[in-house]
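Tokens in:
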């Protein structure tokens, strides 16, 4: 558990703080010569500071034992969707099988599960141009299924496989002992299906 927390802090926070430090130094040098460039750097610093704050919040949330249940996961998912998509006028409908609300996940399971969801929501906010996102969580057999669909622009999955976000989602699905399917095409929106074993 300690190793996982240390890795999360290094991956989530370390690189962001390094970037903020570099941007601060560069903006300081640019402030007298090119105020427009300095302002752009300061905006990036603000964005990355917010990302670091969110990353720390995610880690703290994942560590707390009271968040083991899927019921708490769904609350976190609703909050993140509202924070990320509402300002872009994207409606989000989240549905969960009521029988799953008391189901527990380990700290690492809920961390990876939530980060897959978070990456999907971020991609929708940045690239999809969607107006509606539906999220469905249910048990099928001995598996937990997460389906995320949007009605946005879609993309060519064959050309996008090298992006780090999609790679990270797939590696997290593998760490969960599950599978991740991404189906999309131009103008047809995107559907993401995560399947992990229920213990």
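Residues out:
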């Amino acid at each position: 558990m300690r190793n996982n927390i240390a890795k999360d802090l290094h991956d989530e926070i370390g690189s962001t703080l390094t970037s903020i430090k570099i941007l601060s130094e560069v903006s300081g040098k640019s402030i007298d010569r090119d105020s427009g460039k300095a302002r752009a750097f300061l905006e990036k610093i603000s964005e990355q500071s917010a990302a670091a704050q969110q990353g720390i919040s995610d880690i703290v949330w994942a560590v707390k034992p009271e968040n083991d249940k899927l019921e708490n996961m769904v609350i976190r998912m609703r909050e993140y969707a509202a924070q990320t998509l509402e300002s872009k006028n994207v409606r989000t409908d989240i549905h969960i099988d009521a029988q799953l609300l008391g189901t527990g996940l380990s700290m690492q399971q809920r961390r990876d599960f939530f980060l897959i969801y978070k990456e999907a929501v971020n991609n929708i906010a940045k690239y999809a141009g969607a107006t509606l996102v539906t999220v469905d969580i249910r048990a099928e057999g001995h598996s937990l299924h997460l389906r995320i669909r949007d009605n946005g622009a879609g993309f060519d999955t064959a050309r996008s496989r090298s992006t780090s976000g999609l790679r990270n989602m797939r590696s997290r699905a593998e760490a969960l002992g599950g599978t991740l399917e991404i189906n999309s095409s131009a103008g047809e929106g995107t559907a993401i299906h995560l399947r992990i074993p229920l213990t």
